[in-house]
Amino acid sequence: MSEHDHLQGPAWLRWGLIALALLVMVLLLVLPLAMVLGAAFAKGVDVWFAALKEPDAVSALKLTLFTAAIVIPLNAVFGVFTAWAVTRFEFPGKRVLMALIDLPFAVSPVVAGLCLVLLFSTSHGWFGEWLSDHGYKILFARPGIVLATLFITFPFVVRELIPLMQQQGSDEEIAARSLGASAWTMFFRVTLPNIKWGLLYGVLLCGARAMGEFGAVSVVSGHIRGLTNTLPLHIEILYNEFNGTAAFAVASLLAGLALITLVLKFWLEARHGDALAQSHRRH
């Protein structure tokens, strides 16, 4: 037996672990997804399509895409510059900033939603009364949904970029500066091209979470049909009303968006696996 085979262990153990992993994946991921799709199309394509054309479903889809369209670019910009600041500079409070970056991972989304309520509620919020007096509405409106989603999804981009930028180091940037490049020229000609695949990967993860976020959005949305319901909230309402066919139809749409994200993720890993591997090596 070679040293490589010795490190891998007996063949029966390897294949047993692989079979166990596949079984868990099938039971927890593939089978539930297949059941959702089966229930969605159980009464035919016409019924499925009618559920998606229903005005509340269309409104929920538009709000979900609208929120993602705002959150993804903001998180991309904030993530890039936060990662750049953390990996390229030393400053007081750096460890505190790193802890704050991970805060959305540690805090329950429901708690994040309640924090927004404490900030922007018109009855007892810190800023709610002032905002209301000036004609601004945060809670039970689109701004609150965007803020909640932005909070929950913030770490995805920056946490993909920090290990990648640490791995690459700053030698190329220093060389560019020594040759007379300005800070912005260095960033767009050196830094950004080196991190573009890690950035795209983080954006995909951010978009998937933004479209599927439930807890924080549920707290701040008010569940107003046709106005503040995203796709996950609309699915919950349909299911609670025992409209299972429509609920599974909309759920299949959300699952389809997730599958598109997954396909893009696999494409990125297959086409640019080395760059993405570097971004995960330090996780």
Based on CA atoms alone, the radius of gyration comes out at 23 Å
pLDDT < 50 runs, ≥5 residues? none
Question: Overall pLDDT, averaged?
Answer: 85
Q: Which structural class do the helices and strands define?
A: mainly alpha
- Enumerate how many helices there are, as a single number: 15
Give the SSE order as H and E letters.
HHHHHHHHHHHHHHH
- Approximate shape: globular
Please summarize the sheet with the most strands: none
The helix fraction, in percent, is over 70%
Secondary structure tally: strands? 0
Distance between the termini: 33 Å
User: In percent terms, what proportion of residues is strand?
Assistant: under 5%
Map the helices and strands.
Elements: H1 3-8, H2 11-40, H3 45-53, H4 55-88, H5 94-101, H6 103-106, H7 109-120, H8 128-133, H9 142-168, H10 171-178, H11 183-212, H12 215-221, H13 231-240, H14 244-271, H15 273-281
Write up this protein.
- The radius of gyration is 23 Å and the shape is globular.
- The mean pLDDT is 85.
- The protein has 283 residues and is mostly helical.
- It is built from 15 helices and no strands.
- 30% of the residues are buried.
